[in-house]
# Entry
Amino acid sequence: MSLIEWKDEFNLGIEEVDNEHRDLVALINALHEAISEGADRADILEGISEIYTLVSAHFKREEAFMRETRYMAYAEHKEDHEVLLDDLREIIDQVRSGGRYAEARLSADLQYWFSEHFRTHDARLHQATHSEERPRT
# Structure
């Protein structure tokens, strides 16, 4: 069973960004499935690291787009990106060091963060980039 079901509200209307969002959802769902099936720490670490790599590159592109379009909520949106990256780095460090982590909480946190970020920050970005008031560069 998928952890995150793709919803139309996750679409920004920017094909490259939307495709990356779909790829992120697929990676999160694959990690969740692997955890549910009893994946070992190495596989979990690999899955989280893959998510981190894709997220980091995606955020750089999304932030460049926000700067280019002079998006008014850029700082707030970027700060939310930094929170996720920090959280993912902490999880990676915890798994790498062999420390205890809650598998169910990891899945729940990933599901919440991505769904909430898509629903709020990315939805606002979508609305701003599709409004008549959007600044032109």
User: Anything to note?
Assistant: The two ends are 43 Å apart (CA to CA).
